[in-house]
Amino acid sequence: MDESGVNIEDRVIVFDTTLRDGEQSPGAALNVDEKLEIARALEEMGVDVIEAGFPISSPGDFKAVQRIAREIRNCVICGLTRANKQDIDAAAEALKDAAYPRIHTGLGVSDIHIKYKLRTTREKALEQGVEAVKYARKFVGDVEYYAEDAGRADPEYLYQVLEAVIDAGATVVNIPDTTGYTTPDEFGALIRGIREHVPNIDRAIISVHCHNDLGMATANTLAGVLNGARQVEVTVNGIGARAGNPSLEEVVMALKTRRDIFRVDTRIDTRRIYPISRLVSQLTGIPVQPNKAIVGANAFAHSSGIHQDGVLKERTTYEIINPRDVGVPDSAIILSARSGRHGLRHRLAELGYELDDEQFEKVYQRFLLVADKKKTVDTRDLEAIVADEVQMFFEETYHLEHVQVSCGNHSIPTATVRIRGPNGEIYCDADHGTGPVDAVYRAINRVIKEPNELIEFSVQAVTEGIDAVGRVTIRIQADEPVNGDSRRVFSGHGADTDIITASAKAYMFALNRLIAARREAANARNGKTRSD
Questions:
Q1: How far apart are the C-alpha atoms of 127 and 451, rounded to whole Å?
Q2: Topology of 13-284 in CATH?
Q3: Backbone φ and ψ of 155, nearest 5°
Q4: Average pLDDT over residues 276-298
Q5: CATH 3.40.1440.60: does it fit domain 399-530?
C-alpha cells in the first residue's frame, strides 16, 4: 500500500530507449559524451534499464555503449542486435564491463515483415530467433527478445514464437507495436492473450514497445500495463522514429497519478523529469512543444482569469499533478497587459518579493511596458524586472530616462541618451562607436565623466521566443582609485526586451555603484577627519 492508501500490486520496470530509438529522430544524433551525460541523468532518475545503442551499427555507437556500460553501475545496460552472431558478438563485447548487461535481439513476427523484410518463412524465422537467444545466453544471463511488428502479427504464431524463445532462455519478451497501428483495446487484448496462451510466460517479463504513428503510443503502453505487461519501453520527451515513442514522463506520471487504476509503481524520482527533459531537448536540438503533457511550457501555465482564480484558491481545481513533483518550480500564472495591480502584487508575493508601495509602483510601471511588448509576462520576466528596478542596494545618482540608437551595415552606429542627474537636472548627449552598444556607452560617458574600463560584457535570454526579455551583465574597472583600490571592479545588470536598452541599464547600474562607492569612501574620510 502506498502513501495514498492504494494497494500496490507490483512494480513496472522502466526501460529507457532515448539513446537508441530516440536517437532515430531526424537530426537527433548525439556524440559519445552527450550520450553519457544523458545516461547519467537517467541513472540518477532511477531508470531500471538503459538501452544504450546498437553496437554493430557504427564505431560511435559501439563506443557509446561501451563507455556507458563501464560508467553506469546502477542500471541494466542493454545493447540492441539483429538475430545474427555478428551483431550479438559486437553487443557482447561492448557490454562486457557492464554491472548488469542485457542483449536485446529479435526478428519480425508479422507476415508483412517475414515475407517482405526478412524474405523467409515463419518456420525459419522462428528457428533463427531461437538460435539467436541461445547464442546470446552464452555471453549474458539477461536476454530480451523483440517480436517486431507484433501488433500486426497472427496471434497464434506470436504465441508459438514467444514460447520457443522463452524455452531458449529469453528473460524478457518485448511486444512491439512497431508501426503504431493498434488501438488501446486491441493492444491490451494482445497482451492479455499472451498471458493466457503462452504456457511458460511466467518465466519471462512482458515488455511493451509502442509507437506514436496514430498518437496512441502512451495509451497503448498503459493498456499493456493494465493487462499484465511489467516493463515499459519509453523515451524522454517521446522522441523516436517517425512520430516517436511513448514519452517516459507521460507513462510514469500516468502510473503515479492514477495508482487507483493501475496499482503499480516505478522507481523513478519524478522530480528529475523536467530537468532531464530540458537536457535531452538541448542536446538533441529537438524542442519540446509548448502543449506537451507534463514537460511542455504550458503544462502548468494558467492564463484564463477563471483558471487563475481557481488555482490561486486551491491548486487542485485545475491541476491534477503538483508541478514540483516533476521538477517544475511552480505553476505559472501568466500575466498580461490586462492584469491589474492586485494580480501582479499577489504573484510577486508568491515569488517571495515584499515590496513597499514605491518599489511596487516602479515594478508595475516596468511590468506594463514589458507586457505591452510581449503577449505574456512569466515568472522569469518578473524576476528580471524586480532585479532591475528594485534590487539596487545603493543610492542611484544618475538615472537613464531615454536611449535612442541608429545603426546598420551602411551607417555609423550613433546613440543619443537622456539622463537625469543628482539634482533632477536633465542631460542629453550623443556619440558614435564601433557598434550600437559602444555608441551608447560613449554617449553615457560624455554625461557621466567617470573613467573606467569595460572588462566583461555578457547577454543572456531570460525567456524563450523572439520577444524574450534579455539580461545584460557587465563588469567595469575603475581607472582611478576607489578608497585606495585602483583595480576595484563594479558589476551591473539590466533587463529589457530591447537588448540595447538592457545594455544601457547595465552600464548605468555599474556606474552608479562606482559613484556610490566613491561617495561612501569620501563620507568615511570626512567622518574620520571630523572625529580627529
A1: 84
A2: TIM Barrel (3.20.20)
A3: -55, -40
A4: 86
A5: no
- Is residue 270 within 8 Å of residue 51, measured between CB atoms? no
CA gap 200, 203 in Å, rounded: 6
Sign of CA dihedral 148, 247, 16, 52: positive
Let me know how long the chain is.
532
3-state percent helix, strand, coil for the chain, nearest multiple of 5: 45, 20, 35
DSSP bridge pairs for 231: 13, 207
Which secondary structure element, helix H or strand E, spans residue 104, and what is its range? strand 101-108
CA–CA gap between residue 381 and residue 190 (Å, rounded) = 50
Does residue 172 sit in helix, strand or coil? strand
Lowest mean pLDDT among 63-77, 181-195, 279-293: 279-293
Classify residue 373 as exposed, middle or buried by CB count within 10 Å of its CB (0-12, 13-18, 19+): middle
DSSP-derived pairing of the beta strands 411-420 and 426-432: antiparallel
Per-domain residue ranges of the chain: 13-284, 301-389, 399-530
Cα–Cα nearest to 169, from 220, 102, 119? 102
C-alpha cell recorded at residue 121:
518463412
Phi, psi for residue 198 in degrees, rounded to 5: -105, 110
Three cell numbers, residue 257: 497519478
pTM of full prediction above 0.70:
no
C-alpha cell of residue 467: 520577444
Residue 532, pLDDT score: 45
Q: What is the rounded CA–CA span in Å between residue 390 and residue 180? A: 54
Instruction: Specify the amino acid at residue 479.
Output: D
How far apart are alpha carbons 327 and 324 in whole angstroms?
5
